[in-house]
Amino acid sequence: MHWKSDHKQRSRLLTSEPLQMAQVLWNTLIGAVPLSGKNNQQIQGAITKQVKKYQKLLEAFSGSARLEAALMIHIQVRACMPTCGGLSAF
Asked: pTM of the full predicted structure?
């Protein structure tokens, strides 16, 4: 019985680590985009340019449909302001 609970805990850690890495990567890449003094269209263009520039790196850290979906939720819920248009850049 102890093995099962230990196994569940390890499984949770293993599945959450790639997601956390993808989230940190996203936050870092978007944090490097200058957003001050720009309108929504300029912000969307800057985000799109940044994503295209680091597309291969993002693909490496979101290699499954589950990770991609979780990263999209992170972007939508936590990383984007309602007016930034970051999610619509995809």
From this structure: 0.64
